[in-house]
């Protein structure tokens, strides 16, 4: 039993609410505040953000440009410091980057001098995992991303979509507690982007990684996730938490259904309203 369960009754109501969420969450963000120095004093980028990502959730963050989506993800990744509030991964307040979090960015971040297979094994090598185990994990993820035939190729020989598939495999190979994805498909052409969305959803259906995914593409958010947080324009706060009540097994045809279009329009409406608020 976790310590706070024993202590729960001793806590004041507000703290009890925080501790109850912590008990169920993989990522729990509470009262998050971020300011940047500006010419005329500090600029508040984000205020009192609360986000709750449960184990095996696929959560998307959307919002108007500049609302702080990437900043939020970078803070959860430990790449940027918060000005206030808490970010807890399981029971630990984060204080910097860690191997409990895997990251996939918009820009391609593979090591160009390593083959596809070496890129996937990179984190495992750092952990000094025995070669046989590394091999097994690399084989598994090469299959997941459908690039078995490309294991000995270098990133320079791959298309943009293939590079992102390798980046996803590399992140998953380390078995992170949460996969953090920042607009990973936004540089791809529309057809490749749709293919990547489908692959990502299939990976999630099969493996159930816990995912926190930032995108400005509402259709993408509705297709991929089981919960969407819509942020307000700056300073970013949570405007809405939208459950995505669509079928579990998803194919691209889902995007043409009435239920999907209705939800996409609903989320779009929240963001449009923000732009003119
Ligand atoms: N290093 C920085 N110094 C000053 N201001 C910053 C810095 N980084 C971000 N900001 C500001 O913080 C706000 C949030 O930026 P962020 O890039 O997180 O937004 P976003 O929602 O991801 O935007 P977009 O959808 O356009 O990518 C913006 O107003 C941005 O100008």
Notes on the protein architecture:
Its EC number is 7.6.2.9. Residues 27-258 form the ABC transporter domain. InterPro entries: AAA+_ATPase, ABC_transporter-like_ATP-bd, ABC_transporter-like_CS, ABC_transporter_ATP-bind, P-loop_NTPase. Keywords: ATP-binding, Nucleotide-binding, Transport. Pfam families: ABC_tran (PF00005). This protein has helices at residues 3-7, 13-24, 69-77, 116-126, 131-144, 160-173, 190-207, 218-224, 258-275, and strands at 25-38, 41-54, 58-62, 84-89, 92-93, 101-104, 178-182, 211-214, 227-231, 238-243. The protein has two domains: 24-100 and 181-276, Rossmann fold, CATH 3.40.50; 108-175, no CATH class. The chain is globular. Helix 7 links the parallel strand 7 and strand 8 (211-214). Strands 6-7-8-3-9-10 form a six-stranded mixed β-sheet, sandwiched between helices. It has a four-stranded antiparallel β-sheet with strand order 2-1-4-5, with helices on both faces. It has 277 residues and is of the alpha/beta class. The model is unreliable at 1-8 (pLDDT under 50). Bound molecules: adenosine-5'-triphosphate (ATP).
């Amino acid at each position: 039993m976790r310590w706070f369960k024993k202590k729960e009754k001793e806590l004041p109501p507000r703290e009890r609410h925080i501790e109850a969420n912590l008990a169920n969450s993989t990522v729990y963000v509470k009262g998050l505040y971020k300011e940047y120095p500006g010419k005329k004093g500090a600029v508040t980028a984000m205020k009192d953000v609360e986000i709750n990502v449960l184990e095996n959730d696929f959560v998307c963050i959307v919002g108007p440009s500049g609302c702080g989506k990437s900043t939020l993800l970078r803070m959860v990744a430990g790449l940027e410091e918060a000005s206030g509030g808490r970010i807890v991964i399981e029971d630990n307040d984060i204080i910097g980057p860690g191997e409990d979090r895997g990251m996939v960015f918009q820009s391609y971040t593979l090591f160009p001098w390593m083959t596809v297979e070496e890129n996937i094994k990179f984190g495992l090598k750092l952990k000094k995992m025995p070669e046989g185990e590394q091999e097994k994990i690399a084989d598994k993820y090469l299959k997941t991303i459908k690039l078995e035939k490309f294991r000995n190729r270098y990133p320079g020989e791959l298309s943009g979509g293939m590079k992102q598939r390798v980046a996803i495999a590399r992140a998953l190979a380390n078995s992170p507690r949460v996969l953090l994805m920042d607009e990973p498909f936004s540089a791809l052409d529309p057809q490749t982007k749709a293919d990547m969305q489908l692959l990502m959803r299939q990976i999630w259906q099969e493996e159930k990684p816990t995912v926190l995914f930032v995108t400005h593409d509402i259709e993408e958010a509705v297709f991929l996730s089981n919960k969407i947080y819509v942020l307000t324009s700056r300073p970013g706060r949570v405007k809405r938490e939208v459950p995505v009540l669509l079928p579990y097994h998803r194919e691209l045809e889902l995007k043409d259904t009435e239920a999907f279009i209705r939800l996409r329009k609903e989320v779009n409406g929240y963001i449009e309203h923000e732009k003119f608020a």
